[in-house]
Amino acid sequence: MTTTARTAPQTWVGQRVPRREDDRLVRGAGHFTDDVQAPNALHAAFVRSAIAAGTILSIDVAPALEVPGVHAVLTAADLGDPRLRAVLERPGFVATDMPLLASSRVRYCGEPIAVVLAEDPYCAEDGADAVLVDIDAHPAPVSIDDAGRHPLHDEAPDGVLVDLQMFEDESIEQALADSALVLEEGFRSARVNAAPMECRSVVADVDRRSGQLVVHLSTQVPHQVRSGIAQALGVAEHGIRVIAPDVGGGFGLKCVVGREEVVAAAAARRLGRAVRWSEDRVESLTASFTGHEQRYRVRAGFDADGRLTAIDADVEADIGAYSAYPFTCGVEPLMACTELPGVYRVGRYAARGRGYTTAKCPTAPYRGVSRPQIVLVMERLMDKAAARLGLDPIEIRRRNLITEFPYTGPNLITYEPGSYLESLERCEAAIDDAGWRRRAAQPAAGERYGIGIACFSERSAYGTPTMGARRMGMTPGYDVAHVRMDPTGHVTVTTGTCGHGQGHETTFAQIVADQLGITPDEVRIRQGDTDLSSYGWGTFASRSLVIGGTAIRNASVSLAESLKRVASDVLEADPRDISLRDGNAVIDNVVVPISELAARVHFRAHEHPDQPDHLLEARGESDPDGCFSNATHAALVRIDEGTGHVQVEDYIVVEDCGVVVNPMIVDGQVRGGVAQGIACALLEHLEYADDGQPLSGSFMDYLVPTACEIPEISIHHLETRNDGNPLGAKGMGEGGTIGAPAAVLSAVNDALRGTGAQLDCIPVLPHQVRAALHGDGSTSEETA
Amino acid sequence: MRDLHLITTEVNGTQHELVVESRRTLADMLREDLGLTGTHLGCEHGICGACTVLLDGEPVRACLVFGVQADGKQVRTVEDLADGEQLSPLQQAFSKHHALQCGFCTPGFLMLAESYLASRPAADKTEIREVVASNLCRCTGYQGIVDAIHEVATAQQAGPVQP
Asked: How far is B95 from chain A (nearest CA, A)?
């Protein structure tokens, strides 16, 4: 026993604890999938369709086999034509197969047809160039309007893979008729690519010792990938081990199962050699998953005071050629229809959502999933109604925000307490403090300024009940954690969530440290390995802290109870009187080091017969029913009247994600999200030619923002505790992306005031701004 | 017939003799032949800058330089920044200012900043932001990266001038 105590903050939760991940990453010692050593591996290169839609007449692999270094060329027939099938068990959804390699039809440019396996990646690409594919081209559907004219799937002759009348209201027409103002508006957002800096990557090999197919890959969802591989290849799940080492960003792109990764796994089994593939940027931009191409037609009623009376929305999504496994193509229309009203009260609500197949890369969930669009829609409606009714844009929002909680809207969602009005008012004050109005009122010659604002909530941490209501073929939601203390008093935690830059190793360690009275340095977080952790759903939809963190906390609480029980033996005290802090079990002034307790339990188990299982090991679970963080964003933009260039000059975020575990990490998530949102508002769009050829094939064509496009972002925190979990935390990983497009578009339109032009599509490109300033004043609905 | 060349190059202070195919990029040579996987490939067409290394002290995109071009030259990669366990001031500042999240682009930004601060030790924030715009990061919104480099520049100004 000792009386020494280490100094530690009262709680680790709430501290700007530096990230444990950083040391290896700044040294270049991170271990990303392409860094995985696999001696004697074969390198894969895919033969991809150069035609957007057509029938495969022949595939001649013989010339490729003549290429030096090429070991094998595999087609669908060689692999047994395995498929991925994403399912939504509800009327209006058409399930379709996504073959791993196309064998009869191709449905988008870049669709994989064969895989060449060679001794190095250069030879593999030579081989892929040599494969001869003859395709009878069909007319390719390249837009929502084309989908029915040139259907891609026999199961969906109208080109519609999902059609959901989510909310119906017989009295909506009357409510609109009774409204003082009815707006009928259209909005669009472009097709975008999440563009993580690390593209997709896989190394698959059969471990001779265990017999397992071991698949390293860059993913957010290792267990789901394992299920996808097992189902596609007809293998028991325990025969597959999926490992996500360091993951270089995901943003949703890596929360679905890619066909190339499964092909690599299948090829490794078939050839008995390690197979590796790393997507290059051209493939990522032209043949990988995409997001967000949507079109809205909305009717909205307001009373004379500017209060929203009714919304009737028709949401159409261009979902590309296939439903991605496992989330399906329903993810964006479903989300949009369910959550469109956002933070605003609305009397009557009707919404229909459809997903159309086109000859473009399939869509995957992308950071924010439809919320960037629906927030943009609601905020544009607010701005337009304010202008028509002569109200201040902030005042109309104030009149419509939900202020009494819990609130259940006509979209059948119950919002738990948040700070919707307070965040708006705090943001308004911050705008004044930053002198935006003064700056906006004094533009230099040839410049215009605009201020835009966006209020929103971010539903996150969808547990089993919420996800079950979506009726996917598999229902994500719960997560499980294990916490184990070793004889030195150090702790190893496993979680089913899987970070890709969010700092789990640090944040989760802070949570554990508080419960066990140790330091985060004494906690090791293990994630991203299906052999290590129980089935878990990975990291997406801002679920990790709320669900994974709560599971970890719950396990830590159980372990703390075990420790106190052992301490009570040693200290001859009631366990309820013992606390764990500063590395010790403490009662009054008597302390015993936790490391000593841990050693006793493991090495001298006979002295602690009451200790369950004689091990300091605990399991925790969590399966909440979703929660809402909220925020108000504001953007100050400057428009160059000559070039039409829009520069975001300054940006303010007032956000409320409940209890903040690590403010540094939360701020980083907000800033990164805002950057992606600004990009969606002003830069990023995947272009396709009329015949379906992708035109955005490099970062020369697809403009990801640099440091010069992103301003400094000031962040203000509010804290409305989430009573739904013991951490008090709410998910927040997507909020930056959700609020920024609306705030920036609102600011651009503010800058265009007086021109008669309004822009309702993103991205807003310089030539559209010029047309708005110098053109005929019409809207640019046809763009983006 | 593969077009092979014997080259001599110094990487992070160590001399190497290597046989490389003429079309092999410097990035692949570093990663695959020398096992220096800290240099990352983010786009392979010279835009993202994740593969930035120093060639005779100048920052280059290792995806746009062939391995044979390193013949007779010195290469410096991210693995050379720390002095054993001791991280360099830039590496420390990146962590302190949360200038990285997934960390994939980080080696490229560090090497870019390393060469920039060597040539312009008293850089101000505006200049730094313009230089940082050479590379792409998808996670941080860049603010932490700019702040980290600026802090090191400020410290260099305050401290003794490097020879």
From this structure: 6
Q: Which helix (H) or strand (E) holds A48?
A: strand A42-48
Measured between beta carbons, the chain B residues lying within 8 angstroms of A30 are 38, 103-104
Is 0.95 exceeded by the ipTM? Answer: yes
Claim: this prediction has a pTM higher than 0.90 = yes
Contact criterion met (CB below 8 Å) for B37 and B76 = no
Q: Which helix (H) or strand (E) holds B154?
A: helix B143-158
Which chain A residues contact residue B39 at CB under 8 A?
Answer: 28
Cα–Cα dist A416/A625, whole Å? 11
Residue A249: closest CA among chain B residues belongs to which residue?
A: B102
What's the mean per-residue pLDDT of chain A?
95
Q: How far apart are CA A133 and CA A487, in angstroms?
A: 61
The helix/strand/coil state of A514 is: helix
Split chain B (163 residues) into runs of 10 and give each run's mean pLDDT.
92 98 97 97 97 98 98 98 97 98 98 96 94 98 98 86 48
Instruction: Say which amino acid occupies B50.
Output: A
A384 to chain B nearest CA, in Å?
30
At a CB cut-off of 8 Å and minimum separation 6, what does A62 contact? none
Residue A38 burial (CB count, 10 A): 17
Q: Name the 3-class secondary structure at B54.
A: strand
Residue of B21, B40, B43 to mutate when probing chain A, most A C-beta within 10 A? B43
Cross-chain residue pair A34–B41, CB shorter than 8 Å:
yes
| DSSP letters for A366-418 | -TTTTHHHHHHHHHHHHHHHHHHHT--HHHHHHHHB--SSSEE-TT-PEEPP-
Rounded to a whole number of angstroms, the distance from the CA of B114 to the nearest CA of chain A is: 13
Candidate from A245-249, A325-329, A467-471, B145-149 with smallest mean pLDDT: A467-471
Specify the range with the lowest mean pLDDT, choosing from A220-224, A505-509, B84-88, B119-123: B119-123
| Alpha carbons A674 and A682: distance in angstroms, whole number | 12
Write the secondary structure of A62-82 as one string of H (helix), E (strand) and C (coil). HHHHCCCCEEEEEEHHHHCCC
Chain A hits for B138, CB-CB cut-off 8 Å, are: 195-197, 249, 251, 672, 675-676, 704
Residue type, A57: L
Is the separation of the CB atoms in A386 and A344 below 8 Å? no
pLDDT digits (tens, 9 = 90+) for A544-554: 999 999 999 99
Chain B residues in contact with A123 by the CB 8 A cut-off are none
**Which chain B residues in 8-37 lie under 8 Å from chain A, judged by CB atoms?**
21, 23-24, 28, 31, 36-37
Of A39, A62, A44, the residue nearest A117 (C-alpha): A44
Instruction: List the beta bridge partners of residue A55.
Output: A105, A136
Question: Are residues A25 and B103, on separate chains, in Cβ contact within 8 Å?
Answer: yes
Neighbouring residues of B154: CB distance < 8 A, sequence distance ≥ 6: none
Radius of gyration of chain B (CA): 16
Q: Residue A97: exposed, middle, or buried by beta-carbon count in 10 A (0-12, 13-18, 19+)?
A: middle
Q: Tell me how far CA of residue A181 lies from CA of A176, A308, A750, in angstroms.
A: 8, 9, 21
| Chain A neighbors of B94, CB-CB under 8 A | 22, 26
Among B41, B135, B141, beta carbon nearest to A672: B141
**Neighbour count for residue A574 (Cβ, 10 Å):** 10
Cross-strand partners of A163:
A354
First vs last Cα of chain A: how many Å apart?
70
